[in-house]
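User: Structure with S-adenosylmethionine, tokens only please.
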Amino acid sequence: HKFHPCDEAVIATNDDASDCKRCAVRLGYWKDDYIGYFVRNQERKAPEINRGYFARVKGVEMCVEKFLKKTSGNCQIINLGCGFDTLYFRLRDTAHQVKNFIELDFPTVTARKCYTIKRNKALLARIHDEDGEVRLSPTDLHGPSYHLMGVDLRNLDEVDNKLQQAEVDYSLPTIFLAECVLVYIEAQNCRNLLKWIAQKFQAAVFVNYEQVNMNDRFGDVMLNNLRGRGCSLAGVESCLSLETQRNRFKDSGWTGARAWDMVQVYESISAAERQRIERLEMLDEGELLLQLFQHYCLVVAWLGVAFQDIDITCV
Ligand code: SAM
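Assistant:
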């Protein structure tokens, strides 16, 4: 598999996200018994970063929970650019069960995730039940209801092929997750992906977390930082405002979309939970956190009308 040098830099963004999640988990921001298997790094991150990740993980979780409640688990989750995200394993420890959980990322990333899962009984045990078997290749892993596969999301034939290998059911309600992924994908490729999903699936929700309000000075600094690491930010034109974020979906055949910046998402987390994490670490001043929250967003788009009420309001 040949990669563009930019792809290598994009792949490396997963290590950064995983390190940050691991750090926040160790400090007690949220519970995750699994991230430690995937990350060795023990580096401590700034309090603002930890709080930012807390809001990100909680925000996505709130939407997923609502969707699972609404479908009573009669649904699929498809995690696009999954990196080392542990949602599948965390859900296994709750009452929420889903019909199928599918994870896609570049083969370089899924190979590392497969390798870690293969070597850890605690992870493997959550993928197969008593009689279910796990099929493995260097980059792909198939359990009875968990599938991790290497694929370039810009190649729709390959995506289709992989989803079929994962026994996807296009008629089952499906929630797509993309956490800091679409910004790295060329606008046209991204639109094609979103259009393709809209044509294939009957009822779906898309939860997208990524940068927004990139056309100010703070946005410039964020983008220059990513570019400095060699990332192509091919999808950044959709990250200009909440409106461009919503329009990307509406222009790609999705029925509707809502978007909130992370200030709003953070405020929708229960007061008790916010108070708990605000006591974990002191912030020197709130200005940096506020800036960060204003420059990230959560977008929820839906296909059909069944899931137009999936949002961030507290349950
Ligand atoms: N979603 C994970 C999380 O939040 O922990 C990882 C986020 S990381 C910032 C971005 C991920 O998107 C990387 O793992 C990268 O490999 C993946 N990605 C970006 N472009 C991709 C593409 N064209 N095909 C497959 N994966 C892609």
